[in-house]
Amino acid sequence: MQERSRSLTMREDEKGTFVCIVVRKRDLRDGFLHFPERKESGMAFMKVRSFLVLAIGIVLCLPAMAKAAPPPYTSPEMAKKLGQFRKEAGGAFIVPQAFGTHPGATFVLMHAKDLGLSDKQIKKIRMIRREMVNRSLKQIARIDKLRSRYLDLMKSPNPPLRKARKVYMKLTRLMAMATFDHLTGHIKVGKVLTKDQWAKMKSLH
Predict the structure, then answer these.
(1) What residues form the membrane-spanning segments (predicted)?
(2) What pTM, to 2 d.p., does this model score?
(3) pLDDT digit string (tens) for 152-178?
(4) How far apart, in whole angstroms, are the C-alpha atoms of residue 128 and residue 110?
(5) Measured between alpha carbons, how far is residue 108 from residues 82, 117, 136 in Å?
(6) Is-contact 3 26, C-beta < 8 A?
């Protein structure tokens, strides 16, 4: 049976000219191109080429356009630090479930209007957050260094257990300290709120 169903596609010939190619749909479905039974060239295809270039340019711009704006009351620099913190904190904190009871500064600032925060409260919360994040990033860097040192010691078939134990104890102590220091920052943020604001914040969380 003769295949009547055909489609059009485009390719560039040996001279660099884009031409229209008649392709059988069966060949497209089977993964093979049936090279031209008929081809045409002209201004129409130059327009198509220009359209494709424009479309590709728009697509390439989409990632930059899609970047989310920083949260309210958050500078680009702080937004960058927050992104780094969220990426790395999971491997540094111990028993992070306690944070669920005490929402952080960024969450509270995102709902500043709903909570009716004053300018003074916003300024205080931003200051607490800056101290929290800067301290935590330094602690996480130290934790990563100690973790790598401990793992290097344990790679040996006969690791120096006494030395490794000291490094391990120092590592876990620093992880506990980093967790509690950051949790303390969350609690400080909560203390900036009034009782009514705290109750409202808990209903939003």
Answers:
(1) 48-66
(2) 0.64
(3) 999 999 999 999 999 999 999 999 999
(4) 15
(5) 15, 9, 19
(6) yes
